[in-house]
TrEMBL record:
The lineage of its organism: Bacteria, Bacillati, Bacillota, Bacilli, Bacillales. This is ATP-dependent DNA helicase RecG. It comes from the Bacteria. GO terms for biological process: DNA recombination; DNA repair. It holds the Pfam family Helicase_C. InterPro entries: ATP-dep_DNA_helicase_RecG, DEAD/DEAH_box_helicase_dom, Helicase_ATP-bd, Helicase_C-like, NA-bd_OB-fold, P-loop_NTPase, RecG/Mfd, RecG_dom3_C.
Length: 682
């Protein structure tokens, strides 16, 4: 990073305080961050002869309106608008869903440009964009950015242009020329130019290839540098504890452990006893019982005279875990504390003091745990739950609060082993591949949108039994305004439907963190009976009283994500249900729904998901449990990830990397991420 890239966005001509605030809202503060902000898709205005366009392919068609638009409503809020259009020598039909207001705007004989999916059999375009006037003259590929109002995609394009004109020349290239040559990668300046202003698809492809490699290489360098750090510390913590007390704890548990739990506990305890630092990933489907495994490990640490920390992504989850652990440890003399940003004042002081004195054995918390001022007397075990929610750096900071403590990372998302190793570095992997006995399978149904009122009746039946329900609406990155609207609409429908009888809550990404916590809490305390939410509803949240999971527009989700959502119910004794509302058009879409109704096994679903995923289909990376990247997709771009991993390993173990000017750019990036601590690595 150089100085130009670190200037605030207001350094760009034409960006004032207001625009800067809007940019900050989507995580862009500096010129460098602005230029790095990648479009999530591109619109291609190159027109093709319709005869050459394949079924379901995306097209841009310019033509004249040939018939007055026809508007029909169906369901409660759904509408379909259609008109005939004369495009070149073809008379075709254009259909727009849920945009009734277009009717007034479409005039006979007017020239319009439609972008959408071509249905070859019906000679119809299912339009997702309709523009008045002819298609742009350029055969240009236009970037589409994910924005939040008041920003628009148009503004974003303008800002990029201004930023690039002013700062393009100052974009530093961290990749040494030798590496660039070896893989024929374009330089950074050219890559960002092509990312924002591509002239051809090929340019774009080359730009992405280069950016993905750089991103993966830096990630892998961080991982490898960390490994060096961990190796350099001569030895990890040796936990030595009384086997007797541990087995009496195990036999006092309120249930019999599954064989998988026994096996995994054995693997973890062996690591803990050994002087080698544990670095283990624990995968287990939702409900497979990871918490008790964590508890046993924490207990072993406490018996050995060490402290243990369990870090989770949200406050509610932290409180839940603290509660379950307190129950499990009720008959022991283990002391547990909770540390989140809500623990304030005197109470906080007391917790911090006791952690430092060592009178607290186990602390459960959020990222509050990794703040400065949190000090342990003898931290011996660090566990993270839903580990993909934490960055490499956050995990490192927590780890460094102890002296080479053992590390266990838990995730509910099944990740194929080879992929896990590549994506997370060399770690050991344990798998909980067995569900506790007697667990009722969540019954899963697939229904169509027109059956929504029956779904509402079904929910009501469960509510009358005192149970609760989730209704999830998809979050589409493309327009988060529309999304939220989706959730808001469904929410108001339900409020209307259940008026005076049940409390309906609403949760979406536009709420502040505080508001989200408040809604979640009300739901977990059964003051809200039905929670309508976008997918921000937290992974790992445990409300055992909820027995219905309704997923609206389910075809929009990947299988892995549907499975995660389904895992929010079926956590208590009562039979639970998952209802997928979807009208998928494609065969793959239908197949997805069928698989969901038939399969309860997360690993099977994860594999099917990969199978059904086309190249470039970014479905599901978000919740896949893999780290999130700006440009690359660890599954789709797996081969680049592998190459980057090999290169990174070579680099960190070469003296030249730590010394030569050619690598200064890469070193600077590592330093900026706080990973590089010169002293320790020398
Ligand atoms: P997850 O792996 O999703 O974190 P939890 O640890 O929250 O799962 O466990 C889900 C539920 O199953 C909890 O209520 C827990 O008490 C229970 N449980 C865990 N292990 C067993 C077991 N061996 N037998 C019966 N119930 C169990
Ligand atoms: Mg859990």
């Amino acid at each position: 990073m150089n100085e130009a890239m670190q200037q605030p966005v207001t350094a760009v001509k034409g960006i004032g305080e207001e625009t800067a605030a809007a940019l900050a809202d989507i995580g862009i503060a500096t010129v460098g961050e602005l230029l790095a902000y990648a479009p999530y898709r591109y619109d291609d205005y190159e027109q093709k002869d319709l005869a050459a366009v394949r079924h379901e392919e995306k097209v841009t068609v310019e033509g004249k309106v040939y018939s007055a638009p026809l508007l029909t409503y169906y369901g409660k809020k759904k509408s379909r608008l259609s008109f005939r259009m004369l495009a070149d020598r073809y008379l075709i039909t254009v259909v727009c869903f849920n945009r009734p207001y277009l009717k007034e705007k479409i005039a006979l004989n007017e020239t319009v440009t439609v972008i959408g999916k071509w249905d070859r059999h019906r000679q119809t375009i299912n339009a997702y964009e309709l523009r008045f006037g002819p298609a742009p003259e350029t055969t240009g590929i236009e970037p589409v950015y994910s924005v939040r109002s008041p920003l628009t995609v148009k503004t974003m394009r303008r800002l990029m242009k201004a930023a690039f004109e002013q700062f393009g020349e100052h974009i530093p290239d961290p990749l040494p020329p030798a590496l660039r040559r070896a893989y024929r990668l374009v330089d950074k300046q050219e890559a960002l130019r092509a990312l924002h202003f591509p002239r051809t698809r090929e340019e774009l492809h080359q730009a992405r290839r280069r950016l993905i490699y750089e991103e993966f290489l830096l990630y892998q360098l961080k991982m490898q540098a960390l490994r060096r750090l961990m190796r350099d510390e001569r030895r990890g913590v040796v936990h030595s504890f009384s086997e007797e007390r541990l087995s009496s704890f195990l036999s006092g548990l309120p249930f019999v452990l599954t064989n998988a739990q026994r096996r995994v506990i054995g693997e973890i305890l062996a690591d803990m006893r050994s002087p080698r630092q544990m670095n283990r990933l624990l995968q287990g489907d939702v409900g497979s019982g990871k918490t008790v495994v964590a508890a046993v490990a924490l207990y072993a640490a406490a018996l050995s005279g060490f402290q243990g920390a369990l870090m989770v992504p949200t406050e509610i989850l932290a409180e839940q875990h603290a509660r379950s652990l307190a129950e499990l440890f009720a008959d022991t003399d283990v002391t547990i504390a909770l540390l989140t940003s809500s623990v304030k004042g005197k109470q906080r002081k007391a917790v911090l003091a006791e952690l430092e004195e060592g009178t607290i054995d186990i602390v459960v918390g959020t990222h509050a745990l990794i703040q400065e001022g949190v000090q342990f007397r003898r931290l011996g075990l660090v566990i993270t739950d839903e580990q993909h929610r934490f960055g490499v750096e956050q995990r490192r900071v927590l780890r460094e609060k102890g002296h080479a403590p053992d590390v266990l990372m838990m995730t509910a998302t099944p990740i194929p082993r080879t992929l896990a190793i590549t994506a997370f570095g060399d770690m050991d992997v344990s798998v909980l591949d067995e569900m506790p006995a007697g667990r009722k399978k969540v019954e899963t149904y697939w229904v169509k949108h027109h059956q929504f009122s029956r779904v509402l009746d079904f929910i009501e039946k469960e509510l009358r039994r005192g149970h609760q329900a989730y209704v999830i609406c998809p979050l589409i990155e493309e327009s988060d305004k529309l999304d939220v609207q989706n959730a808001i609409d469904v929410h108001s429908q339900l409020v209307h439907y259940y008026r005076g009888k049940y409390e309906i809550g609403l949760m979406h990404g536009r709420l502040s963190a505080d508001e989200k916590e408040r809604v979640m809490r009300a739901f977990s305390e059964n003051r809200i009976h039905v929670l309508v939410s976008t997918t921000v509803v937290e992974v790992g949240v445990n409300v055992p009283n909820a027995t219905v999971m309704v997923i609206y527009d389910a075809e929009r989700f990947g299988l892995a994500q549907l499975h995660q959502l389904r895992g929010r119910v079926g956590r208590g004794d009562a039979q639970s249900y998952c209802i997928l509302i979807a009208d998928p058009k494609s065969e793959v879409g239908k197949e997805r729904m069928r698989i969901m109704t038939e399969t309860a096994d997360g690993f099977v679903l994860a594999e099917k998901d990969l199978e059904l995923r086309g190249p470039g289909d970014f479905f599901g990376t978000k919740q896949s449990g893999l780290p999130e990247f700006r440009y690359g997709d660890p599954v789709h771009d797996y081969r680049i990830l592998e190459v980057a991993r090999r290169d990174a390993a070579k680099l960190v173990s070469s003296a030249a990397f730590w010394r030569d000017e050619a690598y200064a750019g890469l070193r600077a990036e590592l330093e900026a991420s706080g990973i590089l601590d010169g002293e320790k690595l020398d």
